[in-house]
């Protein structure tokens, strides 16, 4: 059994401008809005498989193409070249700590636009891998009610400060904390326990700042783990999913859908 994959069939693309940046946004579905931010190297077949799953569960899904070639399959050279370009882009500030990233301005504008066009009290945002932390940065805007941080790996954890950094500026974090305390904002974070790209210190920071408003889903990927996850297991919601009951990544995906449904039901 392999992870669910799909192609671009049924997805329509429209350019969207926000925060001084323009990206094509692929959209499909009906119902409450969910922004699905692709992981490196872009809107690959696994991301499209997740997008279709969300559509099948009653959401309007908007996927901004921030990097890569939409629909192109993952390959080592393609992934490496995409990472290289993303790392030097000012829009993402891949190594900076305590940083408000320009891409967050784009995502907040997209969230407001999607919220205005879809039913429900607000929208969800799922970030993954390179874009994982962007979901929480988007939640500075009141339109975002359900941020999901799947294996958030920016800033890249080279130094102790980068390992602890939550992926957004302290000013942004204070707004998110205030929303959690006063408005009931909640977030989910997902990671594999052995994933060095997503250090436990980062989740500890998020839990310290957000308390019970930050739900943590950690999947055991230690040597000899029960479900046979490899030491390099990383993408919780895409390539590690096997659609059978009891599989930890499958159960994590179900929990994310439940979270989005509850938060966006009004």
From TrEMBL:
What stretch or stretches form a coiled coil here? none
Per UniProt, the keywords (alphabetical) are: Hydrolase
Question: Is Lipid metabolism there in the keyword field?
Answer: no
Q: Name one GO molecular function term.
A: hydrolase activity
- Give the originating organism: Mycolicibacterium komossense
Return the InterPro entries for the record: AB_hydrolase_fold, Dienelactn_hydro, Dienelactone_hydrolase-like
Domain Dienelactone hydrolase, chain residue ranges per copy: 30-261
Which Pfam families does the entry link to?
DLH (PF01738)
Name of this protein = Dienelactone hydrolase family protein
